[in-house]
Design a protein that fits this description.
48% helix, globular
């Protein structure tokens, strides 16, 4: 595992880490050049960009492994990658993500077929089975610096108290970062921070999602120190693409674009 992965573990322990969502090689390279401490690859982003399908259980382990390899070849920033429910074999998935170059893996406790965490209708597996997944993931990693992000989707159907209890049990099982998905109020974020703030806590900021968008400083004050924006760049990209295609249909290229020379530089062409 690279020194950067060890450094990320150290940073999460002492400071706030902001991780933007990336979804392909170019988005990752641009985020990498911006200077973030970590990047985040969501199943939503891969399903949308690769398959043009919703985050509803269509992705396979090879899909994610190949996308991780592609992205990690283009960046130097540590990448945390979503593994949905862990696919068929948690241990094999953890080692596949490690081998592909990820700095960490996110594993959730949904029943199959899984659904995006900000879409209603999610159901979770039994508490003991969810904890066993995290135990197996911790045991399977080959490097202690590989981060295990344990996510629960219990809030929607089972309430915030059950979600917090699962987070506590995930911490006991060895998770490095706790992720209580889609709290539905600022007060619920505060409850999570008060109950689990002795652990690194992830806050998922999805524009238009089930959770309120909370200012970064307030999240930090509540106890959250790993803050992700998984779809912000993809939503901006979709808007830009839509506008560009509409401009072309109307007969004129859009003025909102980088130059060909700038684009060529972004993908690695060097001027002679």
């Amino acid at each position: 595992m690279s020194a950067d992965h060890a450094a990320l573990r150290e940073k999460i322990a002492i400071q706030t880490v902001i991780a933007p969502g990336v979804f392909d090689g170019l988005s990752a390279r641009l985020a990498d050049s911006a200077g973030f401490d970590a990047l985040y690859l969501s199943g939503y982003g891969v399903s949308a960009s690769q398959l043009a399908k919703p985050d509803n259980g269509f992705l396979t382990l090879p899909d994610m492994q190949m996308r991780i390899e592609t992205i990690c070849a283009a960046i130097s920033t540590p990448l945390i990658a979503d593994a949905d429910t862990g696919f068929d074999d948690i241990g094999a998935t953890v080692q596949a993500y490690e081998g592909a170059g990820a700095a960490g893996i996110q594993i959730e406790d949904q029943q199959l077929p899984k659904i995006c965490g900000h879409i209603s209708g999610r159901e979770v597996i039994a508490r003991a089975d969810a904890v066993a997944k995290i135990t197996d993931a911790v045991a399977a990693r080959r490097d202690a610096d590989f981060l295990i992000v344990a996510r629960t989707d219990a809030r929607e159907q089972n309430g915030i108290d059950e979600a917090i209890e699962r987070g506590r049990l995930f911490a006991e099982a060895g998770a490095d970062i706790l992720f209580i998905e889609s709290p539905e109020s600022e007060d619920e974020f505060r409850q999570i921070g008060a109950a689990l703030g002795n652990m690194p806590l992830l806050a998922n900021m999805v524009e238009g999602g089930r959770s309120p968008l909370i200012p970064r400083a307030k999240l930090v004050e509540m106890g959250f120190n790993f803050i992700i924006y998984p779809v912000a760049a993809m939503a901006a990209s979709a808007a830009a693409l839509h506008a560009a295609y509409q401009h072309l249909l109307d007969g004129e290229p859009s003025g909102q674009r980088v130059s060909f020379q700038e684009l060529s530089h972004m993908v690695g062409f060097l001027e002679k």
